[in-house]
Amino acid sequence: MIAVAERRRTRDAVPGEPPVVPLALHVQSLRKRFGEIEAVRNVSFCVRRTEIYGLLGPNGAGKSTTINILSGLMEPDEGAAQIAGHPLGSIEARRVMGVVPQELALYPELNARENLSFFGQLYGLSGGGLRTRIDRTLELVNLESRARDAVATYSGGMQRRLNIAAGILHEPRLLLMDEPTVGLDPQSRRSILDLVQNLALTGTAIVYSTHYMDEVEQICDRVGIIDRGALLVEGTVDELRQSLGGRELVTLRGMFQPAMVQLAFDRMHDVALVRATDDEVLLNVAGAASRLQALLGTASRLGEIREVLVSRPTLEMLFLKLTGRELRE
Q: I need a labelling partner for 130 at 20 to 30 A (CA). Which of 86, 164, 172, 300 fits?
């Protein structure tokens, strides 16, 4: 796996380029309403070359609507965006942008080469240049050995990789990815995450929409947390963790009575009860190391403790602090 820090060094030290890397995407005050529902509320963010920007939020947060606006499938009610310096919706912007939608955009009765040939021609590619791009892209997504098999015979992970191939065939400067790993097994997810990191190293800027926290923590240079259409906070993963101060997550596993746990920990200073079930209690604690003995003493009177885990601040903890609800829905 390619470290985010290594990719950031590559981005910030490109030979022949100025120290400040030009923006691949500049989003300014986007708004989109559906009747009385404001699906996107004054969303603004920027993405630089080779940067992976994670758009993190639960289902219904506004991620897909934002991606659909940027890809040209929807028009914003207000706001603007520039893609590699070109206005949103312009022919120039569409030429330098690739899109990997959440739903598969493939023809199952065609094979991989036929699918890519179709999409390549939509971008104006033809002849030997198109064939070379198809060969190179199939190798990149590790599908060259199945290139002439019908897509209907592919596994879910293979179809997702081909879906990405269709979005990167024309070598875009900006790639929009809307939850590309939904429903995949761990091995397929890992393969796609590695592919995304490799794409960023080649110079592609990526907007990566997801509701999987572990994915953005592994691959994203910066993260924007979105909920109810609004971008609540953004920064690097470390910056977002540090915004929680010295709070940590204490996980207690065993046998508990949730109602009693709720009552006991609601009274404790600098201890926030994240979740309580019959077999697990999650606590958001300031200075957990110095308070662990007292916490265990309280918890032991409320049930049987079999396992204790103290972990550093997470994006889930920050999301709960900002919204008061679970990230995954």
A: 86
What's the rounded Cα separation, in Å, for the pair 65 and 178? 10
List residues bridging with 259 in a β-sheet.
Answer: none
Q: What is the CATH number assigned to the segment(s) 4-241?
A: 3.40.50.300
Q: 36-62: buried (b, 16+ CB within 10 Å) or exposed (e) per residue?
A: eebbbbebebbbbbbbbbbbbbbeebb
Which ranges in the chain are annotated with CATH 3.30.70.250?
246-312
Quick: pLDDT tens for 92-110: 999 999 999 999 999 999 9
For the chain, strand residue ranges (E) read 23-34, 37-48, 52-56, 78-83, 86-87, 97-100, 174-178, 205-210, 222-227, 230-235, 247-256, 271-276, 280-286, 303-311
Query: Could you tell me which residues come within 8 angstroms of residue 62 by beta carbon, excluding any fewer than 6 positions away?
Result: 39, 40, 41, 43, 226, 227, 228, 229, 230
Q: Which superfamily does 246-312 belong to?
A: Malonyl-CoA ACP transacylase, ACP-binding (3.30.70.250)
